[in-house]
Design brief:
alpha+beta; six-stranded mixed beta sheet; 12 helices
Length: about 290
């Protein structure tokens, strides 16, 4: 499964530009050889700590990482097999690849994958993270921060509690109804395939949850609506906001041509000495009612 470019392209929902770029990588003896080596390193069976050997960004390095994702794809069913997850979940999960490919082409002008993107594919290929509609989630996750309480002082989460940890793919609007549908699907998925996990609710830690964005966005924006779903807690300062808003972590916010409204406000925020923060949010099971 996923051994041919055609099969890989279908399941990953690649467009013609991406398919042709992959064909060129596979046909190039130097690039394909390096891609196979990288696939063997980053997608080897057995234990993996979630980190890949560092590599430069852009150019042939990006193309080699794209090739590595292709050459490693036939291993995905083997990685998923111990969990017993259905093939439909595996296939939906693999669509994440296109998000990173299109980000790299837009911002680095190369049809390939960033270092960060290939590392993330390691989590997806291994079934550690799966997709269920608009959102993705970890197959297993334990809350590891300080005891979290509601506004009345009641304990919501303690270190070690099991939760469904959410991830937000960057491939479309964060329609709030679609996000909630996704959480319903996750609840059904865990009830069927992870009966061993006694999860207490949904957890998300993200740059998107920084409530400073509420001064930059309209009250009816999808981000603000998502922030309103749960109880927040601080995580720490982050550069992820710059990466997500501008496409690469090294982008100068003041150098962007034809910036969006959010990019303009972000650049002004940074110029004025502002620092973006990552926040966490716990969403109780009441969201499913």
């Amino acid at each position: 499964m996923f051994e041919t470019i055609e099969e890989f392209a279908e399941v990953s929902q690649l467009n013609d530009v991406e398919v042709n770029a992959l064909k060129e990588i596979v046909a190039d003896p130097v690039l394909s050889a390096e891609a196979k080596k990288l696939a063997d390193i980053c997608f080897a069976p057995g234990a993996w700590d979630g980190k890949n050997p560092p590599q430069p960004e852009g150019g042939d390095y990006s193309r080699i990482r794209f090739g590595a994702a292709f050459f490693a794809a036939p291993r995905v069913p083997e990685f998923f097999a111990p969990y017993g997850f259905p093939e439909s979940v595996m296939r939906e999960t693999m669509t994440d690849l296109k998000v990173w490919l299109r980000n790299e082409l837009k911002h680095r002008k190369v049809c390939g994958l960033s270092f960060r993107a290939l590392e993330w594919q390691g989590h997806l290929y291994r079934g550690w993270v799966t997709r269920h509609g608009r959102l993705e989630c970890c197959s297993e996750y334990k809350y590891h921060r300080e005891t979290l309480r509601d506004e009345n002082g009641n304990i919501l989460l303690e270190p070690g509690d099991q939760v469904i940890e959410l991830h937000i793919p960057e491939d479309g609007p964060m329609d709030i109804d679609e996000c909630i549908k996704s959480m319903h699907r996750m609840a059904e998925f865990f009830a069927e395939y992870r009966k061993d996990i006694q999860w207490k609710g949904f957890l998300c830690e993200s740059w998107l949850l920084d409530r400073q964005f509420r001064d930059m966005l309209s009250p009816d924006s999808n981000i603000v609506k998502f922030q309103d779903l749960g109880i927040h807690y601080p995580v720490g300062e982050t550069r992820d906001s710059v990466f997500r808003i501008f496409g690469t972590p090294e982008t100068d916010p003041d150098s962007v041509e034809n910036p969006t409204s959010l990019q303009r406000k972000t650049a002004e925020f940074i110029r004025n000495g502002g620092k973006f923060m990552e926040e966490g949010m716990f969403i109780t099971k009441d969201i499913l009612k």
